[in-house]
């Protein structure tokens, strides 16, 4: 389970790279990125591009808050870096030396005030995006993306059963600067009128009623692998 979560976490970070290269480049060669831990690997992924803004997430307990960060990373041209709740690992700190603005995704239960204050003490502008739960956090991230560039496309997935599905769409969300919005799988409290909406996942996680009510295109299958295949197509 820990290995599976690590894979999901690093896929979030690498979505920043795929947002900045053409698909043909992504498949024409293979490069190995490795490090002693997930913080170093995420940092090495960030090193692939220049940036002045970064996004911090904590995936120690859950990657839910980080799932919605992919679209924001694309909109900001910012890497997703990893932190602990109360301290910033040295591997991450090294990538923040030339950063002027940091987005923290999640409340203080995820990333503490002490981490936020540490960043502010280094003259960085800090923006925390949070909500009462993971669903509300994703809505607020979507609002931030819309303030940067008008949102035309949204990706809807299940907040509690759709981690693998959201990971499959993460690089697309970053490329298209489109928010991944977490849902209960049954309904959403906003209108998708005027938006191109995709429901990510099969009927076990995202209901047909939701697809119909939002006039969405479903990208999904009976397993996470079939969902991934549908997204790649």
Automatic annotation (TrEMBL):
Signal peptide: 1-19
UniProt keyword annotations, A-Z: Hydrolase, Signal
Gene Ontology molecular function terms on file: N-acetylmuramoyl-L-alanine amidase activity
Keyword Transit peptide on entry: no
Enzyme class: hydrolase
Keyword Signal (UniProt): yes
Documented EC number(s): 3.5.1.28
Lineage top rank: taxon: Bacteria
Gene3D superfamilies assigned: 3.40.50.12090
Name of the protein in question: Cell surface protein
């Amino acid at each position: 389970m820990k290995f599976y979560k690590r894979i999901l976490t690093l896929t979030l970070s690498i979505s920043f790279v795929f947002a900045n290269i053409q698909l043909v480049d992504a498949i024409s060669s293979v490069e190995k990125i490795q490090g002693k831990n997930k913080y170093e690997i995420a940092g090495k992924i960030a090193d692939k591009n220049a940036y002045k803004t970064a996004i911090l997430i904590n995936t120690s307990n859950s990657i839910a808050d980080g799932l919605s960060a992919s679209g924001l990373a694309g909109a900001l041209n910012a890497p997703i870096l990893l932190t602990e709740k109360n301290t910033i690992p040295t591997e991450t700190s090294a990538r923040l030396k030339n950063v002027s603005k940091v987005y923290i995704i999640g409340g203080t239960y995820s990333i503490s005030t002490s981490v936020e204050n540490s960043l502010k003490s280094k003259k960085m502008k800090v923006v925390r995006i949070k909500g009462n739960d993971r669903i509300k956090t994703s809505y607020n991230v979507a609002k931030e993306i819309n303030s940067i560039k008008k949102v035309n496309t949204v990706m809807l997935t299940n907040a509690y059963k759709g981690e693998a599905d959201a990971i499959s769409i993460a690089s697309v969300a970053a490329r298209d600067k489109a928010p991944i919005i977490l849902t209960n799988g049954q309904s959403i409290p906003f209108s998708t009128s005027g938006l191109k909406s995709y429901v990510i996942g099969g009927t076990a996680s995202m209901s047909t009623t939701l697809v119909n009510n939002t006039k969405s295109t479903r990208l999904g299958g009976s397993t996470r692998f079939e969902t991934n295949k549908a997204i790649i197509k």
